[in-house]
Specification:
This protein is α/β, with parallel strands linked by helices. About 50% of the residues lie in helices and about 15% in strands. It contains 17 helices and ten strands. The strands form two sheets. Strands 2-1-3-10-4 form a five-stranded mixed beta sheet. Helix 2 crosses helix 12, helix 6 crosses helix 10 and helix 6 packs across helix 16. About 5% of the residues have low confidence.
C-alpha cells in the first residue's frame, strides 16, 4: 500500500509539473501562406534566424504559394491562418460577408522609374512615351499614377501613352533594354533598375501626398479571419509581436541582413544587396492601431474615385473591422 501511495504521489507531482510547464511554455502554432519569391519571406527568414519566433513560443508553418491570388485562395479555404494581402482586398471580403481583418506590414509600394535619356522630367512628359506597368489597369499603384496624370494634365494616361502591362520581371526588362522609356514596378525591381542606370522620378507615396493623402498608407498587411484571431488570441498576438520585433531588427541591425542574404537571391552582387536592404527599410512599419488608419481611408476613397468598381467593387468606404481592433503596437 505504501508503495502504491508513493507511486500515485509521484505521478501526481509529475502531471502537475508537466501541466505547469505546458501552461508556461506552451507552443503557439500559426500557418502562414506567402509567395515563394516575395520579399515577405525576408522577414520570416530573419525571424527564424534570430530565434524571435522561439521567444514567443511560435511554431511557424510557412507554406509557399505561387502568387497573391493563390494566398487569398488558401486563406479562404482555411488552409492557412495568415496571408499577405492589401487592405482593399480585405475591405471587399468584409463587404461580401467574409470577415477578414488586416494588420499593417509594409508601406512600400514602388514608384515611377524613367530612363534619364528619355526626356521625362515630370509625369505629364509620359504623353507619347512607352510606359511598362506591372500588373493590370486595376493595379493600385497604376490607379494612383493615372489619377496624378489626370490631375496634372486633364488627360487619360492609357489614351495618351503606350501602356504595356506585364509581370514585374518583364516590366524591368522592357525598361532596362530601352523598349520602354518609363516603368511602374514593384519596389524590389525598381532597386534593380536603379543599378542599371535608371532613376526614380516619383514614388507612389509622393503621388498620394499630391492627391491629398498626407501620410503613406500601409497598403500591404497580414490578412486573416477575425473569428480565428479572436478564438486564438494568444497565437495571433504572438505572431504579430514577433513580426514587429523582426521589423525592428531589420531596421536597426545590419548583421541581420547578412543572415538572410541567401533568401534575397542576390548572389555575390554586393551593390544589389545593399540597394535592396536600404529600399526595404524605407517601407518598414513600426506601429499599428486600427484607430489610426486615416491615410488608408483617404487612399481608398481615391481609388474608388479613379478606379471605380473595377478596383473597389460596389463599396464606397472601408467596412468597419477591416483593420483589426484587437491588436495594437
Amino acid at each position: 500500500m505504501r508503495r502504491i501511495l508513493m507511486a500515485v504521489a509521484a505521478f501526481t507531482l509529475m502531471v502537475v509539473a508537466s501541466t505547469g510547464a505546458f501552461a508556461q511554455h506552451g507552443t503557439k502554432n500559426i500557418s502562414v501562406a506567402v509567395q515563394a519569391t516575395g520579399t515577405v519571406k525576408w522577414e520570416l527568414a530573419a525571424m527564424q534566424a534570430l530565434g524571435i519566433h522561439k521567444k514567443y513560443n511560435l511554431v511557424l508553418d510557412i507554406r509557399d504559394v505561387a502568387d497573391s491570388k493563390a494566398g487569398q485562395i488558401a486563406l479562404q479555404a482555411k488552409e492557412a491562418d495568415i496571408i499577405l494581402s492589401d487592405f482593399v482586398w480585405v475591405a471587399l471580403q468584409r463587404h461580401q460577408g467574409n470577415m477578414v481583418s488586416f494588420v499593417s506590414h509594409s508601406l512600400t509600394v514602388g514608384g515611377l522609374m524613367v530612363d534619364p535619356a528619355a526626356g521625362i522630367a515630370s509625369i505629364p512628359d509620359l504623353k507619347g512615351k512607352t510606359l511598362a506597368v506591372s500588373g493590370s489597369p486595376v493595379d493600385k499603384s497604376f490607379v494612383v499614377l493615372a489619377a496624378e496624370y489626370n490631375k496634372l494634365t486633364g488627360g487619360n494616361l492609357i489614351d495618351d501613352a503606350d501602356v504595356k502591362f506585364g509581370a514585374p520581371p518583364l516590366v524591368n526588362e522592357l525598361l532596362t533594354s530601352g523598349q520602354a522609356q518609363a516603368a511602374l514596378n514593384l519596389w524590389n525591381w525598381n532597386s534593380r533598375a536603379k543599378l542599371a542606370g535608371k532613376t526614380e522620378l516619383v514614388a507612389v507615396a509622393d503621388m498620394l501626398r499630391d492627391l491629398g493623402v498626407e501620410e503613406t498608407p500601409p497598403l500591404l498587411g497580414w490578412a486573416f479571419f477575425e473569428d480565428n484571431a479572436k478564438a486564438r488570441k494568444a497565437e495571433f498576438k504572438a505572431f504579430f509581436d514577433a513580426s514587429f520585433d523582426t521589423k525592428k531588427a531589420l531596421l536597426e541591425n545590419d548583421g541581420v541582413w547578412d543572415q538572410i542574404r541567401d533568401v534575397m537571391n542576390v548572389g555575390d552582387d554586393d551593390a544589389l544587396f545593399a540597394q535592396l536592404r536600404d529600399d526595404y527599410r524605407k517601407g518598414i512599419v513600426t506601429k499599428y492601431a486600427a484607430t489610426n488608419m486615416k491615410p488608408a481611408i483617404a487612399s481608398f476613397a481615391l481609388m474608388a474615385q479613379y478606379g471605380g468598381k473595377d478596383v473597389v467593387g460596389d463599396i464606397t468606404e472601408i467596412p468597419d473591422g477591416t483593420f483589426y481592433k484587437s491588436y495594437r503596437k
